[in-house]
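Retro notes, item 3 of 5
We never archived the inputs for the nicotinamide-adenine-dinucleotide complex last cycle. Fixing that now. Sequence and ligand:
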Amino acid sequence: MSVVYDRVALIGLGLIASSMFWAIRKAGLAGEVTGYARSEQTRETARRIGLCDRVCDSAAEAVDGADLVVLCVPVGAMDSVAREIAPVLKPGSTVSDVGSVKRAVIEAVGPHIPEGVHFIPAHPLAGTEHSGPESGFAELFRNRWLLIVPEGGADEAALARLRALWEGMGSHVDVMEPDHHDLVLAVTSHTPHLIAYTMVGVADDLRRVTDSEVIKYSAAGFRDFTRIAASDPTMWRDVFLTNKDATLEILGRFTEELFALQRAIRTGDGDLLHDYFTRTRGIRRGIIEAGQDTDAPDFGRAKVGE
Ligand SMILES: NC(=O)c1ccc[n+]([C@@H]2O[C@H](COP(=O)([O-])OP(=O)(O)OC[C@H]3O[C@@H](n4cnc5c(N)ncnc54)[C@H](O)[C@@H]3O)[C@@H](O)[C@H]2O)c1
Ligand SMILES: O=C(O)C(=O)C[C@]1(C(=O)O)C=C[C@@H](O)C=C1
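Structure as it came back at the time:
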């Protein structure tokens, strides 16, 4: 694979930045990758494990001369990082990010970007419950969606270059409008995380169930909840504080449906429950038939029942 950017700077060296570095390096997509993290400890860890070609002691130093800067910090930290790097951004370069919420990032970062620098927000739909510089791996983005979420018309050449970088890391790239992105992600990612956090909290509150029983008899469904509920608290606090309207909208609908099912259970309405579960099973099968389950081993061609 050929070099897409001579110099890439990654700000915030956690799961996403470290996965980007390993993927970029594996595919030879950049000449040099610099990195910066706020804490001395994270920078030391990064140097120890060879994360980034050069780990810098300030964001400005990492960004100086970069053709692409990717902000990989929690959504709530985007504003201060953008403010800090703005004076040293190279004319003609691109600033992007990987934040899970897009309208808030556009509002926080956009005003700091100088004339002549391209700002192209993005969001990889890939992650794990782990965080920090040692949690990344080169394959994280393979066969996963990367959404490019520009506000208005982005520079075509700059967008094509960013697309090439993510495709080089194995992602499938789509372009989406910011508010639509935030609503879609409220349904597919943000509200499900909140439900998982709640479910694990409920189990913890049930003092009748001792810790060992919760762990020992964890059924697969609950174990999946605990995995998701182990995700980074800072990241998810920021997601809910910044995608407030969309999350509240989806939570409202979720609560209505939950009450309907609760009532069906109380009144013994088996038909309603059966019809509901049949409909939801059909949705899952439809996703797989359409080849849209990116976890399927053969992206785009998985069959029902596999
Ligand atoms: N974890 C996921 O599943 C996932 C998936 C897609 C997108 N994202 C988004 O990617 C971004 C990074 O998430 P992550 O999972 O890599 O998080 P992480 O916790 O693994 O890493 C974040 C890094 O940013 C650093 N940081 C925090 N505040 C900073 C600041 N003010 N200045 C400099 N560095 C700072 C932290 O020290 C840490 O090194 C977030 O915006 C998140 O919403 C996460
Ligand atoms: O797989 C996981 O652990 C994730 O939670 C990843 C996940 C998701 O909800 O799918 C989480 C947040 C993101 O912004 C993108 C991806």
